[in-house]
Amino acid sequence: MNQGHTSCGQEVVEADRVAAFSDGVFAFAITLLVITIHVPGPAELGTKSLLIALGQQWPNYLSYVLSFIQVGQVWANHHTMFTYIKRVNHILIVFNTLLLMNIAVLPFPTALLALYIGTKDQYAAVMVYSGTLAVGGIFYNALWWYASHHSGLLDPKLDPQVVHRVTRRYLLGPILYTLACAFSLFWNGIVSLVLCIFLITFYLLPTVAGRITLLRRE
Amino acid sequence: MNQGHTSCGQEVVEADRVAAFSDGVFAFAITLLVITIHVPGPAELGTKSLLIALGQQWPNYLSYVLSFIQVGQVWANHHTMFTYIKRVNHILIVFNTLLLMNIAVLPFPTALLALYIGTKDQYAAVMVYSGTLAVGGIFYNALWWYASHHSGLLDPKLDPQVVHRVTRRYLLGPILYTLACAFSLFWNGIVSLVLCIFLITFYLLPTVAGRITLLRRE
Amino acid sequence: MNQGHTSCGQEVVEADRVAAFSDGVFAFAITLLVITIHVPGPAELGTKSLLIALGQQWPNYLSYVLSFIQVGQVWANHHTMFTYIKRVNHILIVFNTLLLMNIAVLPFPTALLALYIGTKDQYAAVMVYSGTLAVGGIFYNALWWYASHHSGLLDPKLDPQVVHRVTRRYLLGPILYTLACAFSLFWNGIVSLVLCIFLITFYLLPTVAGRITLLRRE
Amino acid sequence: MNQGHTSCGQEVVEADRVAAFSDGVFAFAITLLVITIHVPGPAELGTKSLLIALGQQWPNYLSYVLSFIQVGQVWANHHTMFTYIKRVNHILIVFNTLLLMNIAVLPFPTALLALYIGTKDQYAAVMVYSGTLAVGGIFYNALWWYASHHSGLLDPKLDPQVVHRVTRRYLLGPILYTLACAFSLFWNGIVSLVLCIFLITFYLLPTVAGRITLLRRE
């Protein structure tokens, strides 16, 4: 800013603004998830007490917690990715928009999961939910693949070995979620649901705490 | 900031804050679009399976995707425009507020489109939708026209030829959407809808990828 | 930032963060207003066409536009106020929180207005709406009064004459909206509604465009 | 930024971005609270006037005001905490995500409170509400405890005595809200509700205005 507008400085600012806009979408999408939790009205209770009614709608809380952690994780990863990206172009913005669309739509499959866990249509809700996560993973990898293969977008100081390692790890997500989506056809989706729960909570454990540190520019 | 508050520095900060506020409205409006997607409750399904019911509400997904890409595009353009604008005054803020009002209201025509595609009232929903996009295009051009014709608002380092080229390209949007709006009266709005889909997705293609780069201050 | 954390620099940062948080609340509140616009479902239409039904719910659009412009205006003023405020303390944050609460609650009276214009309860909806604007004006003045009377919160470079002039102009809002609120008891609130419309649109006119410029630190 | 990317500078930026993301969630959660206020439709009124109907739903306003002030307070404290934190790691982000999840879910217990105050299920609504605040307090303390006990996360210039004092004061919240939650079983939750109201408004009073000032880095 002080040294005038060199084209390089301009583009770093651009990448920062795309990151800031994305951060906004992540923050709103994660906060909007609460509208998927059903508020039972007095008329719905019948002879049940409110505590019982609240307890019976546990799928609401499970879906909420899963999606919240998921968006939080993708935000953290997306955020780290953008510390590597120093320039943006039109195609990268398109891939990023597709990823944000996937994140912003999450309240929809989350609400489906909340409504249909425990019903005969559970498999369909789980299929849509895990399918959305799988597609998100694919968009995420497309974004990173484009950024790392299109010359001049990544920070030139970034070690190619780090890029390689990051690429490999990012690939795991969409593969596992596609698997989960395929599994939703068996046992009314229960295996798929358990796999989603496992995948989402797995990344919260301290044993994978090295993850973000690893991603740091060394 | 370090060199004291010169009136110039102050106004650049002002323009940045207006841009940041606008970015917030864009990010929130794009995320709020998800509330237009209907979540089918178990009672609505009847004998249908959830997958069938979800499939049948494809107009919901189409409207969502169209509006999401549209807001994303307008954000990118608006954002680029504000890299050219170095000072803001009251009238510019008024034009900007009108544009933001148009963006923020988009969930309304989007929900109409989702509900009425395939019904006899399809033409009306398409008319409101394309009309909203046309009005948005007019506000957008008014904002740019005012910024580029009122002395001292644009970055003085900006090449007049670039300003001219940008002005010309911006004009295309409102003209085409007004046309789409007029077409909504024929064939129950189907031509208009196809035109909207074409216009919105067209800008995503790599062939127009030069667009944003072109807009860069050279 | 470069010169270490002097207590002064720290507090400027604090004031900036309170302003940024407030900007966020303004941006979300203004975008959330769209949920007050009713989306007529096919079942509601009966034999009416969608266009007629949309036309008949004009109070929805009027309320939306009024509230949108109002929040936009208060944001612009609030934003200018925070360019004068260089330090924040607990009491100032409390006054600011009260103002934000008033802004964030606006979708509620806006929805009431949309529902009750043209009914026998119109006066009550207008009373709540103008009353909310009046209370907002009071909170706004309390915030400014505290900031300008508590030693050390305003930018010391600010001309006392400017402070005085700003104080006087800010006072007009709550007085006029309190008047509008009182008038809601007569003629089923129609005078009050017209006064609100006049006050809100008045500030958009170019004749008062000097307003923001005047507020600039000279 | 000017001196190249030292690992220290990088991490300060990281902590700032986590703080900014959290600010976004706080700002959005506080603004979304308005959806918990019921808008009475004309059909619901029957022979009642709108003013009477609005007056009778006072629990809506009480819950809204309580939750708004609560989120505002936690935001201010969280914000101050992040002026002490200079580095973030994976575990700290996990604790922060848990706290944000608790803040973002608040519209749910707020809506319950609005619906069930004055009914036989009041105790359950108050239990869920105070329980949510208690859990939030626990997450908040866990976050601070981790930040202050894990070497290298806090600003090294921070006086250990200040850290100690802050730790002690933060502990009070979860203890009192857990107490309030336990009390909800007696007198249909009325004692618990009064305790919540007292605790939330208490921190607004000027007598505790020293609070934020105390937390400033001296």
Describe the structure.
Four copies of one chain form a homotetramer. Chain A contains ten helices and no strands. By secondary structure, chain A is mainly alpha-helical. Chain A has one domain. In chain A, helix 4 packs across helix 9 and helix 6 runs antiparallel to helix 7. Chain A is elongated and about 65 Å long. The N terminus and C terminus of chain A are likely disordered. Chains in contact: A-B, A-D, B-C, C-D. The interface between A and D is large, with 40 and 36 residues.
Can you tag this structure with a few keywords?
homotetramer, 218 residues, mainly alpha, 10 helices, 73% helix, elongated, disordered N terminus, disordered C terminus
Structure summarized in a few sentences:
The structure is a homotetramer. Chain A has about 220 residues and is mainly α. Helices cover about 75% and strands about 0% of the residues of chain A.
Q: What is the topological layout?
A:
The structure is a homotetramer of 218-residue chains.
Chain A: H1 7-32, H2 42-45, H3 50-56, H4 58-84, H5 90-104, H6 107-116, H7 122-149, H8 160-183, H9 190-202, H10 210-215
